[in-house]
Structures are given as structure tokens and as C-alpha cells.
Amino acid sequence: MNKIVRYPIEDSIDLHTFRPNEVKELLNDYLEAAGRKGFAEVRIIHGKGTGVLRRMVHSVLETHRLVISFNQAGPEAGGWGATIALIKAKKPKKKP
Asked: Exposed, middle or buried: residue 37 (CB in 10 Å: 0-12, 13-18, 19+)?
């Protein structure tokens, strides 16, 4: 039985603690939640390693409806061990 674990939605996510078979679904859910929170930019930390996880992340970003663009993070944000994605943030509805 899978246990549901809740994580706070922040402007970055570190995928090191997740199994590779969890990443696609997790990343899709994260992008949706980040968009709802109003983030316009998120950092996805996938590590440097062999590049398998980076390619998996990029394949999700290439097809996700909220992703405007993505690029390798700058040296101060993880370099080739992280990806920065610009996303379409949903503006919260104003209460009357």
C-alpha cells in the first residue's frame, strides 16, 4: 500500500529523495500546484549524475501545459544539476 506524503509547495523541488519511477507523476503534480500558488518560475533540482533524471525532467517540461520555457540553472542555482522553468502562474481569484 502506498502512503501519501504531503510536501509544502515552494518555488523549488529537490528530486533526490524520490525514486525515478515517481518523478514524472510527481513533477506533473508539482507544476500544477506551483502554478496554483502563483509561482512564475520554479527550480527543479535533479542532480548531475548520468543525466537520466535530467532528461526525464526535460521530457515532462517539454509537454506540460503550464511550462512556457526551461533552461539549465545558472551556477548560483545548481548549474547543470538543476533546471529553471518558467510557468504560467494562475492568479488567485479575488474574494468579493
From this structure: middle
Q: How far is CA 6 from the centre of its chain?
A: 15
The whole-angstrom separation of Cα 87 and Cα 31 is 8
Please state, in angstroms and rounded to a whole number, the distance separating the CA atoms of residues 70 and 68.
7
Its pTM stands at 0.85
* Residue 81, amino acid: G
Q: Is 74 helix (H, G, I), strand (E, B) or coil?
A: coil
Do 66 and 74 form a contact (C-beta atoms < 8 A)? no
On whether the CB atoms of residues 24 and 61 are closer than 8 A, the answer is no
Over residues 5-64, the pLDDT tens digits come to 677 889 999 998 888 899 999 999 999 999 999 999 999 999 998 889 999 999 999 999
Question: Would you say domain 12-87 falls under CATH 3.30.1370.110?
Answer: yes
